[in-house]
Amino acid sequence: MHNGASDGLQKSRLFVGTDVFQGVVPSDGSIERNSDSFGDFVDGDAMQILKRGRVWVVTDDEVDDLSKSVFIRNANPGGSPPLLSLGSFRATTATDYIDLGAIEPVAWLGGATDGSPAESISGNAETYDLADGETLLMKIDGGSEDTATFNTADFVDIDAATAAEVAAVINTDITGVVADAYYQNGAYYVRIRTDRTDRNASIEITGGTATNLGFVVETNTGSGNYYGLLEINK
């Protein structure tokens, strides 16, 4: 798995029509669409097909296990026309998708994202009047609640903590993020960004006693599409 789109990445592809049900995928000559919008598909969209070769396609899930089946997913059950996409997992609980069967013989060769991390920035600029043992609570990427604990020993002067010192504690105590001192509007703030860079990345600030930092209790999310590199031998 790597971040960033390859030079050969064919972006913005979702698939409609009989050809998809027959287990083939669009070639480079297929119609390109805005991958953020299903609604611009119409009946009769014509596209070429590729029976042998490799092609990058947009997927609705992260392609992080190349052994997973390639399958067709109906993203608009009961809608007209049906709006289809390729996926890497079989979702058994999602009510807004219907799986229409695996495609053979097709295999994933790799995956990529072109997204951005989730980000949260403190509401107040340095310095911060903290107290020994104060905390900042958060959930990363929908996981369990983690705690950053600020101790007197972490600072030159905990009554005048710098953004860089606060960020260092967060980096030690919280996994899945990188915190730093972020310069904006003539001052330094604490910025937290997820390691993950896609639309499933999230930072949920859930509370804590270090209120002088000024973090808002809220959830911020990342953005971006998933892509998979398919090899077709049909």
Plain-language structure description:
The chain has helices at residues 18-21, 163-173; strands at residues 2-3, 25-26, 49-50, 52-59, 71-74, 84-87, 98-102, 106-113, 119-121, 134-140, 145-150, 177-184, 187-194, 202-207, 219-221, 226-233. It is mainly beta and 234 residues long. The chain folds into two domains: 2-114, no CATH class; 119-221, Immunoglobulin-like, CATH 2.60.40. The strands form five sheets. It has a four-stranded mixed β-sheet, with no helix packed on it. It has a four-stranded antiparallel β-sheet with strand order 11-10-14-15. It starts with a strand and ends with a strand. The model is unreliable at 1-50 (pLDDT under 50).
Short description, anyone?
This protein has 2 domains: 2-114, no CATH class; 119-221, Immunoglobulin-like, CATH 2.60.40. The chain is 6% helix and 36% strand. The chain has helices at 18-21, 163-173; strands at 2-3, 25-26, 49-50, 52-59, 71-74, 84-87, 98-102, 106-113, 119-121, 134-140, 145-150, 177-184, 187-194, 202-207, 219-221, 226-233.
Number of domains: 2
The beta-strand count equals 16
Shape: elongated
Strand order of the largest sheet: 1-8-16-4
User: Ends: how far apart?
Assistant: 25 Å
Q: What kind of sheet is the major sheet?
A: 4 strands, mixed
Strand content: 35-45%
Approximate helicity band: under 10%
Unreliable parts: 1-50
Q: H/E element string?
A: EHEEEEEEEEEEHEEEEE
Oligomeric state of this protein: single chain
Please work out how many helical segments DSSP would assign: 2
- Mean pLDDT, rounded to whole units? 74
Structural class: mainly beta
Radius of gyration: 23 Å
